[in-house]
Amino acid sequence: MMSGDAFSLPSSAAGFSQDQNNANPNPSPKTNPNHAAKRKRNLPGTPDPDAEVIALSPKSLMATNRFLCEICNKGFQRDQNLQLHRRGHNLPWKLKQRTNKEYAVQSDWKAHSKTCGTREYKCDCGTLFSRKDSFITHRAFCDALAEESARITSVPAATNLNFRNDTVNLPHGFPNRPGVPDIAGIPQFNPGFGPDFSGMNPGNSLGSDHQQKPGLSLWLNQANSHINPNLNLYVPSSSSGLPEMVQMGSANLYGSSSSISFGNLTLSGVPHGLKEEGNSKANMVHTSASLYSDSVQNKQSKPAAMPNMSATALLQKAAQMGSTRSNQSFFVNNYGLMSCSSSSSPTPNPISLNQNPNELHQVFQNVKQAAAESLTTANGVAMSDAMMCTPSNLDQLMMQASGKLQNDQTQLKHQRGSNSIESGLTRDFLGMSSESGRPFSPQDLAKFASLSSAMSLNHFTVNP
Amino acid sequence: MAQEEGSSSVTSPPLQFLPWMPLSPGMGSPYPWLRELKSEDRGLCLIHLLLACANHVAAGSIESANIGLEQISHLASPDGDTMQRIAAYFTAGLADRILKGWPGLHRALNPKQASLISEEILVQRLFFELFPFLKLSYVITNQAIIEAMEGERMVHIIDLNSSEPAQWINLLQTLSARPEGPPHLRITGIHEQKEVLEQMALRLTEEAEKLDISFQFNPIVSKLENLDLESLRVKTGEALAISSVLQLHTLLAMDDEMHRRNSPSGSKNPNSNHFQRVQINQNRRTLGDWLERDVVNAYSSSPDSALSPLSLAASPKMGSFLNALRGLSPKLMVITEQESNHNGFTLMERVTEALNFYAALFDCLESTVSRVSLERHKVEKMLFGEEIKNIIACEGTDRKERHEKLEKWILRLELAGFGIIPLSYHGRLQANRFLQSYGYDGYKIKEENGCLVICWQDRPLFSVSAWKFRRYD
């Protein structure tokens, strides 16, 4: 494979030539001329004993359109010509293993076996490559690769569901925890790196925080290497860089793990992701899995008690509840929060709850109804909509919820001279201020609770 | 959808006709049925109560606000579910704001004390660990630096908040792998605390030595607003890059009241079109862009609108800082900021925006860290809680957490003479790959105007943008 020096950057030609060792170089000018080595041609008249030679009639041999380009339907006499032509279409080079192809001319067969017999690189999206550099370039931009990684993430590599009460489930955990170690800069060297890592077994990376760091670095270095394959800026050259990386990894473990996990981001000398026979994928899976396992563990050890509605979803819901009720009688004044400059006071009708217990009841009846409506229509889709609960949404909420507008005289007594222009915004949404100064009687709060709990929230399974 | 009238899981509330008695939540609460509330109902209650209470605070209705706070206290808890925690910190902020009306009380309860540096360092480190935001910012920033500094032999980086060594360790490692070899690297780190800078210096020089990179670290112990940029001694031949991670917004802190009173015609009638037209004429350079972006706002909005010229005309500190930066002729400036408008003039504006923003951040934690985690509690209380308190309770030069949205930063920086460098595909690729390796669902990276925005479940949270000094002008 490649040399063990961490920092040497092989040129693409050199890398390529090594891969060509198994292939027959084709001196024919028609096919790929990029070889370093040339094999001696067999003498004509002594064909390769393994080749299957089939006799074709002169007529079929001379037929002009035996090979057809599927893209543009152009016909060729020889397969080589067709392949050359197909290159112009910029197709991904599809390779098949050990095809049973028939050739009249032996040089053609040799040229073909170069492609068939070559060690191939397979991207996760299914495309095969015979050339390493094209493989690299492709992987850098392959979307399937991205999805694959995401899929790997979601596969729980761990069954360790312990709910760690005292320790923190940090994605890139501190190496020796319980509680918080002396983070403020006392280095913690963490040997005992090698065995775990060289195992590269996603299974045993559980609970071992060591692996994620080189894993991360490995992964990221692959990312780096894919960025400029032609420039070979970050292509590390060693497959034996595995132990090297282990060394560098452990050496980087001084100090707190935060810098470790991040500081290892671009370790050169990390083995390149390209190993033969899909090993690269395995590599990445393993190292990534070491990250994922820990993070998956984190995921699963969070309280699985209840699928709580997220706070952002709650806010969105609250805003929607507010915005769907535009026709309620007691929403008298619609003051936008923004227009605080115009501070004409709202209707000076202090509505005390004692006088109008029904009002409060009414509020929540309508809230319930609106919530029901919004839920039946949205059916939870609203919750998953892009959560851009802009001020306008909550504005509407405030606007329309400003039922109990009051300019309670008693309030002004209590203002501590902070009579800002916002005084006009006095809202008494829940009828909190009243003459008696006791906004919520027990009965009202009771109604509040009972009604809100019945607020068509059976849609979500939430346990108290 | 079946409408069940008060059945479900709520036990029939004992109708106690006790007089109102403020009791601590839990055992002695007169409302035991409150505990029966489903988490979702409780969350909705909390939202309503919070907004109502904030309204009272904004209006100066102390009594009502007090009662509101009390009600919320029955439901909120820093150890509960997401909404409960958010409510706990928001009410703390509201209470702090009210208490400032009694300066003596406030000072007695909040004595000036030298905060524990180690705690602050810890909290910042926890934020780095528990979220991908800083790491992503560093990945994107460093990629932009690498690309901009291709071919440069001498690179100088000014770090406006030099607290996390990982950022530059990563850059050192990447630079050492450059085909043309690493440049001579100089990093000027700015921070208020000497100890943090000492730590940085130690770690970075260690790393540079290992990688055999010619490296120099210049610490500057200073508040960002007091920084004298001229004293930074940028050498000729150096290529300069500036990294600002969640710092720039602090320079927007200013005495809002005075500014509004003193601005030319703003005090009389901030809504006047005349005033706004005057502002527009003064900014001829990007008139085209500006009108393109914001025609409606320019002529119709009140000063509360995020993009009104009044608010852009903005802080003197920011203006002079950006000018000084331009004077250094940086090749690149990468800015990471919170993607939310917490700099509104009115309290309600800020409360509603902050509710949405911090709800997403608390959700992140809820999805990724256990509820009993001490670290999570620390981040929520000492980082987010303090930011929330600053946004709600502080005004004028005290209010440092003046986050603004990307669109506003773009306008502001363009007015100051900077031009966007669209972040490269490679940078975005690296960031996405990092996110995948991070292993959590839910985080996304979006592109917007050549900048990258890091989102949690489609809710934008942090933006990263790259800038160059526009030489023509």
TrEMBL record, chain A:
Protein name as it appears in the record: SERINE/THREONINE-PROTEIN KINASE RIO
A family per Pfam: C2CH-4th_BIRD-IDD
Region (Disordered): 1-52
Molecular-function GO term, any one: zinc ion binding
PROSITE patterns per UniProt: ZINC_FINGER_C2H2_1 (PS00028), ZINC_FINGER_C2H2_2 (PS50157)
Biased composition (Polar residues): 9-34
Originating species: Salix purpurea
Keywords: Kinase, Metal-binding, Repeat, Transcription, Transcription regulation, Transferase, Zinc, Zinc-finger
Residue ranges occupied by any C2H2-type domain in the UniProt entry: 67-89
InterPro entries: C2CH-3rd_BIRD-IDD, C2CH-4th_BIRD-IDD, IDD1-16, Znf_C2H2_sf, Znf_C2H2_type
Stretches of the chain forming a coiled coil according to its record: none
Entry GO terms, CC: nucleus
Keyword RNA-binding: no
TrEMBL record, chain B:
Keyword entries, A-Z: Nucleus, Transcription, Transcription regulation
Motif range (VHIID): 155-159
Protein name (Swiss-Prot/TrEMBL): Scarecrow-like protein 3
Annotated stretches, region: VHIID: 124-189
Motif (LXXLL motif) on chain: 248-252
InterPro entries listed in its UniProt record: TF_GRAS (IPR005202)
Cell wall biogenesis/degradation in keyword set: no
Claim: Cell division is one of the keywords in the record: no
GO cellular component terms, A-Z: nucleus
Region (SAW): 393-468
Family to which the UniProt record says this protein belongs: Belongs to the GRAS family.
Main location: nucleus
Record's subcellular location: Nucleus
Organism, as annotated: Salix purpurea (Purple osier willow)
Annotated region (Leucine repeat II (LRII)), positions in chain: 199-231
